[in-house]
Amino acid sequence: MKTPVQARSAYTVEAIFEATIQVLIQLGINQLTTTKVALRAGVSVGTLYQYFPNKNALLSAALERHLNMVVTAVEIACNAAKGQNVQVMATTLVSAYVDAKLSSPEASKALYAVATELGSADVVARITQRSQLALCDMLATSTDVKFDELRVVSYMLSTALVGPIQGLLHSDVPPAFAEQVKAQAILMTIAYLQQAGLNSASKTFSPAI
């Protein structure tokens, strides 16, 4: 259980993060300042600096928080789909990933600009590693398809999903279109996993001569 001080600190940090997203969406990364964020969060600049020493540290932390939210959704989905066939795995995974990315599209779009501006390769690499590990663990339990190269398959799968969803974030499309893209992404994932499994099986098949 958190102490009252810890609870207040967590509340303050959460308020600062939410204010950061709001200022990012409204003004963009170049116009964002720690003073504006503190004002929006209802705290003093000094209080903000107790947690984040400068603007870049604040933005990096906000980006990592957002990416953690997405990868946690992926990890939960992968864990839930263990021991299922690839159709269930693909549907569960893609739905969780797309829903997490599009739950707050403006925030996702704004933080994508942060990742580009700050060059947050280390943060992205850590999150990507977590995502691909969760995929490997899930795919290893598939009931209908077996994979020889789990790391390669998980890499291809995770990177293949990024492009279409990133495109949605930068396009003004209606919700119905986004749902269609999700459905197509599920079909794409099922087809890839089934074919990757067939390819794995063919490498171990030795025809009689």
| Proportion of residues in helical segments | over 70%
Our count of domains comes out at 2
Total beta-strand segments: 0
Please give the largest β-sheet.
none
CATH architecture of the largest domain: Orthogonal Bundle
Structural class, please? mainly alpha
CATH homologous superfamily classification of the largest domain: Tetracycline Repressor, domain 2
CATH class of the largest domain: Mainly Alpha
Low-confidence stretches: 204-209
Beta-strand level of the residues, as a percent range?
A: under 5%
Q: What is the molecular shape?
A: elongated
Radius of gyration: 20 Å
Mean pLDDT: 91
Number of helices: 9
Q: Report how far the terminal alpha carbons are from each other.
A: 68 Å
What is the helix/strand order?
A: HHHHHHHHH
CATH third-level topology of the largest domain: Tetracycline Repressor, domain 2
Give a structural overview.
The chain has helices spanning 4-27, 34-41, 45-51, 55-80, 86-102, 105-118, 121-139, 150-169, 175-203. The chain is mainly alpha-helical and 209 residues long. The chain folds into two domains: 1-53, Arc Repressor Mutant, subunit A; 56-203, Tetracycline Repressor, domain 2, CATH 1.10.357.10. The radius of gyration is 20 Å and the shape is elongated.
